C-alpha cells in the first residue's frame, strides 16, 4: 500500500471516530438531533446545598430537564447574595400543542402561577432537585440575574419559610414572657385563696346536692298535686259531658219560652201603637174626656171667683 493510500485510510478512520464520538456525546447528554431545548435561569435566596450539576428539573413529577450550572452572584448595591441556577429544559418528555415559541409558552405558564422550588430527592443522601408547579396567589418576584436564558420565578421551601419565621421571633422576649407567665402561675397556685378553693368547692358540691334533693322532693310533691288536679279536671269534664244534653234541652226550652214571650210583647206593642194612633177610638174618647174635664175646671174656677166677689150669694143667691 502506498503512502497516500495509508494517509487516506487514516483520515477516514479519524473522521469516522469523530462522528461516532459526537453521536455518543449527544446520546449520553440526552439530546437528539430532533430534540428542542430551552435554557432557563432561576435565582434562589437560600442555600442550594445538595443541588448538583445534572440534578433533574421536574414538572409535577415528570423529568423535563436538568441543572447545567450553579453560580453565586454578589450584589454590591444592597450587599446581598443570590444563587443563580441554570437549567436546560427538553421536550423529550413533553409536547406543546400550538406554534408559539417555547419562551412565549413559558411566559403564559408563569403568568398562570408557575414557580420553581427546591425539593429533596432523598432524605438519606440529602440531594435536591427543582420542582416546577403552579402556586396560586404567589407574588411574581424576578430579581436581576447575570446569566442568559428565560428567568423562572422561584419560591422558598416550607423549611425556609419556617426558618425565616423563627428568625423573626424575639427569643429573649419570648423567654421573658414565659418566665413572667410561669411566675404568675406559681403565685396563683400558692395563693391561699386558690389553696382553699378545693374545700370551698366541696362545700359548694354538698350544698348543690342538698338543693337538688330539695328540688326533687318539691318536684315529686308538685307532680302528685298536679296529678290530683288533672284527675279533678277530668271528673269535671266528665260530669259536664254527662249533663250537657240536659242543659242543652233546658236551654232550648227557655229559648222557646222566650220566643213566645217576644211574640206576646210584639202583639202588645202593636195594640198599644194602634191605641195611640190619631184615628184610634180610645184616643178620641180620651180627648173628649179631657175636654169635659177642662170645661168643668173652668166652671169651678168661675164659681170660685164668684164666691170670692160675692160670698153672700151662697145665702141670698147670685145677683143678676
Which tags fit this structure?
single chain; 320 residues; alpha/beta; 4 domains; 7-stranded mixed β-sheet; 17% strand; elongated
Strand arrangement within the widest β-sheet reads 5-6-2-3-4-1-7
Number of strands: 7
SS-derived structural category: alpha/beta
General form? elongated
Separation of the first and last Cα atoms: 218 Å
Order of helices and strands: HEEEEHEEEHHHHHH
Strand content: 15-25%
- Put simply, the count of helices is 8
Number of domains: 4
How confident is the prediction overall: mean pLDDT?
79
Residue stretches low in confidence (pLDDT < 50, at least 5 long) are none
Fold and architecture overview:
The protein is an alpha/beta fold. The chain folds into four domains: 1-34; 36-166, no CATH class; 170-266; 281-315. It contains eight helices and seven strands. It has helices at 3-28, 102-112, 158-167, 171-189, 192-195, 197-275, 281-309, 313-316; strands at 37-44, 56-59, 62-75, 80-90, 114-120, 128-134, 150-151. It has a seven-stranded mixed β-sheet. A hairpin with a 2-residue loop joins β2 (56-59) and β3 (62-75). The mean pLDDT is 79.
Amino acid at each position: 500500500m502506498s503512502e497516500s493510500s495509508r494517509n487516506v485510510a487514516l483520515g477516514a478512520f479519524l473522521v469516522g471516530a469523530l462522528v461516532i464520538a459526537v453521536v455518543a456525546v449527544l446520546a449520553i447528554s440526552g439530546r437528539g438531533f430532533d430534540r428542542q431545548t430551552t435554557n432557563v435561569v432561576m435565582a434562589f435566596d437560600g442555600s442550594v446545598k445538595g443541588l448538583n450539576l445534572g440534578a433533574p428539573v421536574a414538572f409535577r413529577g415528570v423529568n423535563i430537564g436538568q441543572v447545567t450550572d450553579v453560580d453565586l452572584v454578589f450584589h454590591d448595591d444592597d450587599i446581598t447574595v443570590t444563587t443563580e441556577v441554570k437549567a436546560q429544559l427538553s421536550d423529550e418528555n413533553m409536547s406543546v400543542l400550538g406554534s408559539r415559541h417555547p419562551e412565549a409558552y413559558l411566559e403564559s405558564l408563569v403568568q398562570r402561577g408557575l414557580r420553581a422550588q427546591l425539593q429533596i430527592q432523598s432524605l438519606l443522601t440529602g440531594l435536591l432537585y427543582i420542582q416546577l408547579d403552579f402556586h396560586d396567589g404567589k407574588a411574581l418576584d424576578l430579581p436581576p440575574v447575570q446569566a442568559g436564558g428565560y428567568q423562572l420565578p422561584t419560591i422558598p421551601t416550607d423549611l425556609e419559610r419556617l426558618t425565616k419565621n423563627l428568625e423573626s421571633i424575639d427569643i429573649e422576649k419570648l423567654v421573658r414572657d414565659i418566665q413572667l407567665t410561669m411566675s404568675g402561675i406559681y403565685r396563683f397556685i400558692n395563693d391561699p385563696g386558690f389553696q382553699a378553693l378545693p374545700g370551698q368547692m366541696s362545700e359548694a358540691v354538698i350544698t348543690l346536692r342538698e338543693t337538688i334533693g330539695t328540688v326533687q322532693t318539691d318536684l315529686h310533691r308538685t307532680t302528685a298535686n298536679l296529678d290530683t288536679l288533672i284527675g279533678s279536671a277530668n271528673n269535671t269534664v266528665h260530669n259536664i259531658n254527662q249533663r250537657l244534653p240536659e242543659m242543652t234541652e233546658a236551654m232550648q226550652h227557655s229559648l222557646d219560652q222566650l220566643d213566645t214571650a217576644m211574640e206576646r210583647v210584639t202583639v202588645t206593642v202593636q195594640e198599644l201603637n194602634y191605641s195611640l194612633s190619631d184615628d184610634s177610638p180610645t184616643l178620641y174618647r180620651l180627648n173628649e174626656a179631657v175636654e169635659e174635664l177642662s170645661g168643668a175646671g173652668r166652671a169651678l174656677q168661675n164659681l170660685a171667683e164668684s164666691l170670692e166677689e160675692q160670698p153672700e150669694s151662697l145665702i141670698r143667691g147670685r145677683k143678676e
